[in-house]
């Protein structure tokens, strides 16, 4: 997955074939961006906040460079990839030859699901088909190029769907890339600016349908479709129509999450400096980030410094949720079907943090302020209102990303005009009320002793719970 070529994804349900521009979806939607963007965000997704993304396919066999190995090797003839093949494989070796080594012999869906539960995530999205076209279920529309016909000879999607559902704590979903680099139907339609629809009508829609048949019961709740490249997709509004046609017959899904534009859905390959995060992003639907900064798929040539730290991971969660977003955190399993310990460690660390600080993340919503004006490493959320008349909004969460080692206290400018409304300030995971005092430009909150924080194993980021005597008005 890359921002440059396929920067927009969408979660969908209940869509069916659109053969003509005038056709609608259940009488509500037409193939225009404005129509697709009007779909409501489902409550379960908005409450979940954190999900796991899995990129797994034939690209895990060479495990070199990134999941875009094939296009870098044969599409752009990148020197690094050409040399890798020349040095390690015999002449005439094809990308398809890798598939027989995609064995997944150590893949245990239950172990994966258990890890994802421990991570604190609320949903899981598996890449069912990436741009290489290989599917992780026995699709009749990718004969000889799926996980049942060649490779592990297993229905990966079906196995993981069952294990995830069995936890009773996670929603399962799939990611389906709409385009395929070397599919002749796709390249034909692409070269004609998608004025022809042989690929989407004859391949994508049928393939998506096979994922959601009642007998298969492959997934429930959420599906991610990688749209056509944005440089072509906006021509003549063809991309919305193609996207909707590709979603042929998937009425069994339960949730529409919405169409994500590049401005709303951000693909993170390196940590984003806090200063670059927009101050007001309440309509932001989501962000996807990968623990390996340089690849979404598995890389045998990865170095330790290529992986985000736990502190960076927690920071991305806090900043995204503060701005009203939902974050997908990606791992890339090996060809054998294992998840490397460094990925597992990051996920388990994340789960420990969410177990303590989850009140500030799950079912939260943006506050009037996202980022503090005095301390730039503080991000705010608040509990979601149950109704517009709800008067119980007296709790604000301030997530402090950097520990104040020098002063053991933090300055908060967001409360400069509300000092008299503050009843109590506590830290999640620490039961005793904290000392605080008003200042000329806000309030100063004293942290517990560092020894006590370490004893309680409160790491990575620290959440202050500010209780107000009456509800502070919220926008929206």
Automatic annotation (TrEMBL):
Glycoside hydrolase family 29 N-terminal domain ranges (all copies): 24-191, 287-359
GO cellular component terms given for this protein: lysosome
Broadest EC class assigned to this enzyme: hydrolase
Coiled-coil annotated residue ranges, if any: none
A GO molecular-function annotation: alpha-L-fucosidase activity
Keyword Hydrolase belongs to the record: yes
EC number, as in UniProt: 3.2.1.51
Protein name: alpha-L-fucosidase
